[in-house]
Amino acid sequence: MKHTSQNRSSLCKTLLFFMALMLMTNSVSAKKCRALTMSGAGALGAYQAAVFVGLVNNLPAEDIAYDVVTGVSAGSLNALGLSGFDPMDVEAGSNFIYGLWSSIPMDKAFDTWPGGILAGFFHKGLFDLDPGRAWVTREYGSQTPQKKITFSVMNANTGQYINFDYDKTDVLPDDFIDSAFASSSIPGVFPHVTRGDDELVDGGTVWNIDIESPIRRCKEIVENESDIILDIFLVSAAHITEEPDFSSYSALDHFFRGQDIFSFYNGMNDYNSSLLNFPDVEIRHVIYPSQKLSSSPLDIISFTQPVMDKCFEAGQRDAAISAQLGSGGYGKILLEFTEKLKNGEKANLDDMLQARLKQKLEEDNKISG
């Protein structure tokens, strides 16, 4: 009898051991890495801040508790703004970056040199970025990175695309804020950042959106790409619409039209390539402005209240649409919109999104009914 009791006890211990092992295995396999990458956008980076606010208002905190945040150009400044908050503290993070962009019309993001804009031709950039750097440094205060952060820059000496990686830390790295501003230093417009023998400029000079970095950083957390969830905020001054009459176009108008078309397709190609190169990654919310954000190509450096207000309204609206469409929904419509443009068809992104929302609502009503 005693022997039987011992056997039962041994069997129970073995079962408990295997149950614990299974729970641990499930826990490991359930681990996901959530990442956000943001493109260059200039003043339209306010749209990205608004998209994040919109996702916070429409999704559970755990869905947007990013372990990794990366950026290029203005996207780097937004990554900097989100860096100081615990991944789950999405409310505080959204308030901070929204507050930064809201205060830009009152606090100078950049300034002219003594002597006016013409004096800029005798400096390393037309405008002085030091006021913006001092302002952001002051607002960031005593915060330190609380998640994995990457800023993308270009080394103007060699043409090399460089990623500056940072991890969670209790001590602010000396070059952290400077790296974000290096990523935002548009060649010719703002002075480059000198680091040692290297001259660092806007990462958007090479790629306006860096999709590989967030995946690479996530693989420091999880082994399998199938455990990576990636959101992409893709912004451009370009919003391609049909222009039936070019009779009044000046040489400068033609130049900016060409730049708009190039910028749009370049971003779409990067997104499409990511689907092919990383088929196991869940590319969830790919959000691009559904409406035109700017009335002038120069709005990309226009930090005025009307530009900010337009970005704030459009960003929150598009985020709400993406949340309703679910994983991959917005991105799918965006690719369909791009194909229509390539084929010479008339297309309106906002109309296509609204039609899909209506269709989804009807489908959901049928299921629930």
Automatic annotation (TrEMBL):
GO MF, one example: hydrolase activity
Species the sequence originates in: Euplotes crassus
Keyword terms: Hydrolase, Lipid degradation, Lipid metabolism, Signal
Signal peptide start-end: 1-30
Location of the motif GXSXG: 71-75
Chain span(s) of sequence motif GXGXXG: 40-45
Start and end residues of each PNPLA domain: 36-215
A Pfam entry, by short name: Patatin
Position of sequence motif DGA/G: 202-204
Protein name (Swiss-Prot/TrEMBL): PNPLA domain-containing protein
InterPro entries per record: Acyl_Trfase/lysoPLipase, PNPLA_dom
